[in-house]
Amino acid sequence: MKYLKYVMTGALVLSSVFAKDLPENQSWNKLQFAPKLAADAPAYSLINIGNFGYWQKYDAYSAHTPSGNSGGIYPRGTAANVYLDGVLVGGYTGGNLLHVSGSIYTNGMVSGYIDDSGNLQQGGEVRLYRIRKDWETLTFDQVRQDAAEIYETTVSSVTDAQMQAVLDQYETDWNNWPTHLGAPFYDLDNDGVYEPADGETPGVANADQVIWYVASDADVGATAALYGCTPIGIEIQYTLWGYNQPGAALGQIVFKNVRIINKGSEDLTDAYISLWSDPDIGDYTNDFVGVDTTLSLMFSYNGVADDGDYSAYGLAPAAVGYDFFAGPIVESPGDTAIFNLQKRPGYRNLPASSFGYFVAGGVYSDPGPYGETEAAREYYNLMRGYAPTKELDNPTRWFEQELDSNGDTVFTKFPLAGDPVAGTGDLDANPADRRMLINAGPFTLAVGDTQDVVTAVIGGIGDSYLTSVTDVKNTDAVAQTLFDDLFQSVPSAPPAPVVSVTPFDDQVLLDWSGLSSVSATESSSISGYDFEGYNVYQLPSASATADEAVRIGTFDLNNGVQTITGNIFLPEYGTTVEIPVQYGLDKGVKRQLLISQDYLTGGPLYSGSEYYFAVTAYNYNAEPPLIEDKALETALTPLYVRLKPASFGTRYSATAGDGLEITHTGPGQGEVSATVTNPAALTGDTYRVGFVADTSYTHLSGVDYSGTLWTLDNMTTGEKAVALFKQGADQTDTDQPIVDGVQVVVSGPAPATIIAIEEYASWPSNATLVDGTTDSHLAPSLSQTGNIWDNRAGDVNLPSYARDYDRFDYWGFDDVVLDFGDSSLSWEYYSGWMHVDSVEGSATFGEPVYQPFAAYRVKPFGGDTIRLFAGFWDTNGDGHWSVNSEVDETGETVFDWVCPTYGSEAWEPIYLIQGYDADGNEISYDPADEDLYIQLALNPTAEQEEYDGLGLASNSYWGNAAGEFNYPFMTAALLGAYYGPNEAGSYVEGSPEGATSSLPQAGHYDKTGALLTVDHYYKFSTAKGNTVDDIFEFTTTKPTASDELKATDLDRINVFPNPYYASNSQETNRFDHFVTFNHLPDDQTDVTIKIYSIDGVLVRKLESMANENQYLQWDLRNNSNLPVASGPYVAHVNTAHGERILKLYIVQRNQVVQYY
């Protein structure tokens, strides 16, 4: 399902994620935080590719930030719903020695693995690793957002060094993925050996982001500090993963595989695995917990309707759940378990065996004191499904529940298993600071044994604290479906578009046309989901929610897919409803957008102002097999831009939308246009469009195109700008490349596209049209179904697969002529035998029939004219080419050119065949050889009898696949008359005398009843597209820069607002006051601004060395960091290009001192 309202688009915001007090038996000095991020050994990192921000530490301290705050952030970038969580393992060695190890507030684990000698190995390659499979193609804005979350700061505060550190860490972790320590990888040949050279890569479950680390309980002091126990000798490998689908159900989930290996010296019996969590749904003091036994899901939700932490973001309180997908495996003949995300026959997975909870400061509080074995007994009781008491032999059961009227009772191991949404069953009460755990066991973990437990942390959010619970459960169902499929067919959004942002004075250009990234996005096909289109959004801020974003454009494939619906959980209804989720327009893909309007305010864009945009890609699957989402969309990564004019001392030579002058040489009739899209990117170079015939390439969308393709060369640099690209159907085609700030659109009609049907007399003379330009005696159709050409061109040009007139793609740019002033022998369309008179009683019965037309092929650009061999499908078997005809009352045969019905006797489509000689050279039908054609067809020699007459005459064996030349040049062409409308607008015969039109020959009548005095012929003219001899050239003009312009631009330096009246429209809070100096030199020279009071006292000095920004802010404070007084000031701006003196006036807000 979608999460349309609550996807956070920006970096982590920390204002509401405060630390809370630790349990009474936990001291702060036991929490040790390693550095936030070091290039060689990061201590902390987080899964943050979806809508859940989930922190991890290298020693298994989970869901806690480096700064000591709640580390489960949901929705990502808002408030927290998990303060801390972990995994614990309990059981006995030697039959009676109890152990409980793992991570809770005090961590009994340490980073490291246990080697074959039983020694703990730490440091070096033993650390936390984080990868994402698209790390090599991350955009600037994606890295900046990731860095903001890693360093717990805002997007605007991220430094280049921090961004580089994040990117370097991705590269380091990818290239050094520790498969030899147990990190998962895609083993393509199933040999258990990691072989990157053979295409094997790090990762698991088709995930987009993965974290892996290993920890052990091999440190005696750490294990004893937890619950006073000795180490078991277990090594736990943690693999966490997420999916880049923040707007879909998958993006609300963090999956976790916990691999537990007994590397100790004794078996662990009566063992349990426990998932423990301290959920804090915003404010930690008002939470509830519960369990859904049908889903093996424990969850936490707010105990009251509102929560201050979430209200700060305009959200209802979220919820969080933990699911046990696959518990420990035990032998079970006939069953099948899941282990290592593979099926293992003869075993079964243990289900969740119990759920427990306790309340900080309540009757059942945190097991403790830490470091004491009685805490281990309390927690082991929780693992077994009892209340947290220290009595192992006589544990306290949770509660008694009456089952029937007999008074029989049962003791539950799943307290609080009611339905809080329905308000039924055992429900939590008295909201407070809760902890919860879900367990699986008992089982035996023998020495050397390995157990895998697959779990997930699931976020949910609705429009109320209870619908958030419903959302968690709905998302859990999606997670279960993917797990049941073993993550083999994980659906995913397309790769995100790579967007560059170019600011102008009052416009901004978003460009995602890079050929390599476009190809990755548009050719993607993932689990049946194919690329469909792009969305462009404007956001009010970097941390805006998706519902705050305004969609300002959708550019989708023209494929009939427009509005896409999905089953979406709507909190206001508390259920899923089918609603639109994507709004396609079928107007074609665009890869660039020039924005001139502020879509949030409806006003213009202003120079110097900051704006946020996002470009996403989405795909489509009409019948998704695993999940309900038919469309998946990439994350809204905010694109920050501050509008500014051209760089200091620079002027653009063009504006977006300008068309460049094109020169053309060559015979083709195609078109080329070059339109400026980005004036800042113009090079001043000359470019040439050329053509390559009979070639092919794979388009950005993954579709193969062949034929005559175009290329683009930079004639100034000698570089190939575009290797091969398809021609558009016309100049409106937006699916054309953008190169160096120019979109080049090359269009040429497809071969065999008929653009005119001309009616002439006296072929092959240069006669004019018989009756002018628009009217026609006969408008022939060249489609198999006999459609009428009611505008003489284009309406029935069918693709070749539709069996149209050029089914086998022979026409190219050739024209075809049907001449009704001549006649030809003809052959049957399929059998190849010559047509003879087959009308019983006819005087010419058995003799060859000369059909009333001849056919010609006219090659383009002054090429040859070749007479074609004529054929047709003799549906009535009379040997004569038939049209609709009838015998009138006088006994005369009259013709009706209204197209016949498919399969009727008059349905006799024409086929035309190109002849060849024995060497494959094209030859013409020759009337002088007609006696030979008759002999070959009707009186063949013994050697000739095995071949049909057409093949012997033309060496073209239609239909029998013999020889190289085996298909007709023209196929399935019917002829029909177009009758113009009468006065009433109806299409009827136009003759008032009732005469019908007939064959267009002298002595017959036309459609108006007029007697024809000359024979007619029809020329089917095709569009002459671009050829290898065509060349188009254009030249751009690059921006102008000069010292004179720099001197002029000194006068443009200014300060805004001036005067300053207590506030600035760009200020975001009442403590943040500033004015902005603008139009400063941004050419990496030094800029110094000295601000003086009116009496000449230096108040503040601002400096920007090697300045690259046209803007510099003054925070209205003096050099002692105190607010300046209201009054006039003088600013002395010193640059490498000269000086500028500005006067400004400041009016500060009233400051009232309440206590003195």
Cα radius of gyration in angstroms:
40 Å
| Shape category | globular
Number of helices: 10
Oligomeric nature of the chains: single chain
Task: Give the class from helix and strand content and strand pairing.
Answer: mainly beta
Report the end-to-end length measured between terminal Cα atoms: 58 Å
* Proportion of strand residues: 25-35%
Helix content: under 10%
Mean pLDDT: 85
Main sheet? 9 strands, antiparallel
Low-confidence stretches: 1-39, 764-779, 784-802, 897-905, 977-997
Record field, number of beta strands:
65
How do the strands and helices of this protein lay out in sequence?
Layout: E1 44-47, E2 53-57, E3 72-73, E4 80-82, E5 84-93, E6 97-102, E7 110-111, E8 113-114, E9 120-121, E10 129-132, H1 140-150, H2 160-175, E11 209-216, H3 220-227, E12 234-242, E13 253-262, E14 268-278, E15 287-292, E16 297-302, H4 308-311, E17 319-326, E18 329-339, E19 342-349, E20 354-359, H5 373-384, E21 400-402, E22 409-411, E23 434-445, E24 450-460, H6 467-484, E25 500-503, E26 508-511, H7 515-522, E27 525-526, E28 529-539, E29 550-556, E30 563-570, E31 575-583, E32 592-595, E33 610-620, E34 639-642, E35 650-651, E36 663-665, E37 671-676, E38 686-698, E39 704-714, E40 720-725, E41 738-739, E42 742-747, E43 754-761, E44 815-819, E45 826-828, E46 854-858, E47 865-867, E48 869-872, E49 885-887, E50 893-895, E51 910-913, E52 915-916, E53 922-923, H8 930-938, H9 949-954, E54 970-973, E55 1016-1022, E56 1031-1035, E57 1040-1041, H10 1043-1049, E58 1054-1056, E59 1060-1061, E60 1075-1078, E61 1085-1093, E62 1098-1107, E63 1112-1114, E64 1127-1135, E65 1138-1147
Helix pairs in contact: 1-2
